[in-house]
Amino acid sequence: MKTQFYYLFLLFAYLVLHSCKENSETATGDSKNTIVNDIHSNAKPDQAVVKHLSLELTADFEIKKLSGTATYDIEVKEGADTIILDTKDLDIHQVTLDGKNTPFTLGKDDKWLGQALSIPVSHDSKKLIIAYSTRPTSEALQWLVPSQTAGKQHPYLFTQGEAILTRTWIPIQDSPGIRMTYDAKITVPKDLMAVMSATNPQQKNKDGVYTFQMDQPIPSYLIALAIGDLEFKSIDKRTGVYAEPGMLNKATDEFADVEKMVSTAESLYGPYQWERYDVIVLPPSFPFGGMENPRLTFATPTIIAGDKSLTSLIAHELAHSWSGNLVTNATWNDFWLNEGFTDYFERRIIEALYDKSYSDMLATLGLQDLKAELKDLSPEDTHLFLNLAGRNPDDGMTSIAYEKGALFLTMLEQKAGREKFDAFLKKYFADHKFQSMTTEKFLTYLDENLIKPNHLYVNVDAWVYKPGLPDTIPTFNADRFMKVDTQVTFFVNGRKASKLETKNWSTHEWLHFIKALPDSLAEADMVDLDNSFGFTASNNSELKDAWFKLAINQGYGLKILPEIRSFLVNVGRRKYLTPLYTALTEKGMYKEAKSIFDEAKPNYHSISANSIQAILEKTAPKI
Ligand code: BES
Ligand code: ZN
């Protein structure tokens, strides 16, 4: 009886799996782009899908709204009767389907996913037009007043789509597994210029109307817009920089190696598929270091250190032109396919362009971060393949995806040998360009194209589906950091800072130095270090951030509180803010943290503000 039941169960399981698979292979009508179920989108692309988006929007800085129309070329599968788009915090005014005004419904509002916008369609429906406007609270958008910009004269707007915020400024099928081409016509105040992740203007025009085109199909999170007092300066034929006028020369000097980065990347993994590669330097409130919007990387001004020492971040965003933008994580559970590959690729670009000791330092710092973060994460969140059901996909933005992901690839490279591994990656990008990728599909491809043909033994399961790190992980050459460690030991044993051997140290050696210092230093030691090396007043944001964190943990924070406050008020990059606010609250400085946040909040993008708010709420003293 039991066995019969077992066989019945097997048959049932087979049928379920089989029907899912069939469904997924044929769903888009595009055999190459497998449709997978995305728990972070309400869209049902197996029924109806957007193929092209045409935006016509006007930016009104007075009321902090974008308004206008989104026109979609849609494809409706046989038998389907509804198209579903994602929306969040939008006002939908009117929906027109093939020229006819059409009723629509907005579903229940979910904290993370927003509301499903359902529109009745039929198999021959072609063109959908939605008239809508954003709200001042739409999370993807940050509207800056002139005082929050470099030039202080003009307002500024930028968007941040990843992971699921594009739905807060465009009604859209907001899943990384769905790709579309787009064009846009954006009207802005006459003295401003608009740029997008598309073909871009290089000059302001008189009427304030800008048009854009993105002919390569991209996922929605890569649609991006920035509006401000912008100027363009070219670096080379296909590379250049957009920034506010006062920043432009400095930024162009800093990014002088960008063209070389592009050609280096091409020589590793195949042709650059997006024609131009430009970088826009945003105001300091940009919540990330960089965002890989195609054709136009969005970057924080905090990487402009004056000595090119932080430009590996540009190599990272550029690398996404392959890993992420060309071959895209199908869902946010597969995020490591975007970031782990990109971290690995970033270091390969740095190694090829500069030297191996530099990329080894980057990898070692990354590994240190990973080991520290592993202690704080729940075991399930340390798998490469994540389960983010019911959560904000931002929760997956940990060093697991980045560093464990990059380590996994480094391990594969070491097992297969560099030549074979590079050939494998090059072919992987060529075979899957403009497609989305699931972890499972990648692992099958890996097995068939690298592991089996070369008879490698790799414990893929432990790396991808198990917590923590496997017993054996790749190691990096540590010569440069060992020298730094020696100086740390001297200092801890009483040698004066001015007597340490620090000649020719790069930013990364300094970073390692600060991070290797113990929390137990005396105040006089902190003063000695600061007097000798000028960390508090440094122009290098990474050093400043690391130093402030050490200072707070060590009890020196109150002494340099004005400088810490000024850094936290002026910079909105979440990676810097989170550790500093956390350290403040952990060191009994909740009151100071709260007061700084109250002052800084108007400067922060909602992404950063929400993260800091959560830290403060969690640590608020009970009254
Ligand atoms: N794509 C990410 C930024 C991102 C990830 C935004 C997830 C929203 C959700 C970008 O490429 C990135 O990784 N930026 C890093 C810099 C990089 C050098 C590690 C950052 O902003 O710190
Ligand atoms: Zn990245």
UniProtKB/TrEMBL annotation:
How is the co-factor bound, per the entry? Binds 1 zinc ion per subunit.
Q: Which residues form the Peptidase M1 leukotriene A4 hydrolase/aminopeptidase C-terminal domain?
A: 478-616
Stated EC number for the protein is 3.4.11.2
| GO biological process per UniProt | proteolysis
Source superkingdom: Bacteria
SMART domains membership: Leuk-A4-hydro_C
Binding site residues for a peptide: Q160, G161, E162, P287, F288, G289, G290, M291, E292, R573, R574, K575
Record-linked Gene3D superfamilies? 3.30.2010.30, Neutral Protease Domain 2, Peptidase M1, leukotriene A4 hydrolase/aminopeptidase C-terminal domain, tricorn interacting facor f3 domain
Q: Which UniProt keywords apply?
A: Cytoplasm, Hydrolase, Metal-binding, Metalloprotease, Protease, Zinc
Annotated positions binding Zn(2+): H316, H320, E339
Catalytic activity line of the entry: Release of an N-terminal amino acid, Xaa-|-Yaa- from a peptide, amide or arylamide. Xaa is preferably Ala, but may be most amino acids including Pro (slow action). When a terminal hydrophobic residue is followed by a prolyl residue, the two may be released as an intact Xaa-Pro dipeptide
Indicate the segments annotated as coiled coil, or none if absent.
none
Matching SUPFAM superfamilies, A to Z?
ARM repeat, Leukotriene A4 hydrolase N-terminal domain, Metalloproteases ('zincins'), catalytic domain
Query: What are this entry's molecular-function GO terms?
Result: alanyl aminopeptidase activity; metallopeptidase activity; zinc ion binding
A GO cellular-component term linked to this record: cytoplasm
Cofactor(s) needed, names only, are: Zn(2+)
| Sequence intervals crossing the membrane | none
The entry's family comment says:
Belongs to the peptidase M1 family.
Protein name as annotated? Aminopeptidase N
